[in-house]
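Exercise: predict the fold of this chain.
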Amino acid sequence: MERRPGRAYGGWIAPVHPALTPYVVSMTAYDVRHAASSGVHLGMPSTELTFVLPLDDPLDVSWDGDPSSRTTVWASVSGLHTRAAHIHHGPRQRGIQLALTPAGARALWGVPAAALSGSLLDVHEVDRAWADLPERLAVATSWGERLHLVEATLVEALRRHAGPGPRPEVARAMAMLTRGARVDDTAQDVGFSRRRLSTLVRDEVGVTPKQLQRLARFADAHRRMRTVVLTGEGTVASVAAASGYADQAHLAREWHALAGCSPTEWARREFPNVQAVALAPEEG
């Protein structure tokens, strides 16, 4: 498998097999050396599921504000969540991380994304057929071999779980909501009452339509903020405006609520070697 430089910080993004594109948003191989001997990386809330296959050491992860949720696994699966994940790390992290669409949960593991919402699970708890993947990855000797192994496992899983996905009208509603459509307009478009739409969306992904909208807007802001930090072009205010927040104070409140810290603190923690001077004067 060809590897190419990607947008990932400290990693590279592998091409996604055509059969997997409805279910896999990205597959990133990462190899990050941290300045400190230990620390915490934030896994930000979004509309995507996260599947991490670490090398060298198991993934040590917990939810923000909930130390009792801390778990250590070699193949971490998490569904949609409305608070940050804390990934506790040593001086170096290597592995493969995948971002999956909600439909990917059914296609790859045979369960609705709702079954994984707010959970930190080992993949064998989701689908026992994946239990030996960490062991097979451990003996692979190159990134090309590791990525090919993960891709082949994903494609095989598609054949194993061939079956119906979410109802088309529910899939359409979720797509509209993640694009920012109002809940009432979405319900009318797909022919459901607002209450019925809420039930169907929650049954599929584990969050309400309003929460799905909120996650989509925050994910867009997170993506833009990352670009601002890495390029030095833009401010918190410009990110807030571009992502549909009333102002930068509104964005800052959401950042605190969903990430557990301010945008500036997030930038300083996640990119300690990057000068994020553009953020500080603008934050409300």
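Check your answer against the key: The chain has eleven helices and eleven strands.
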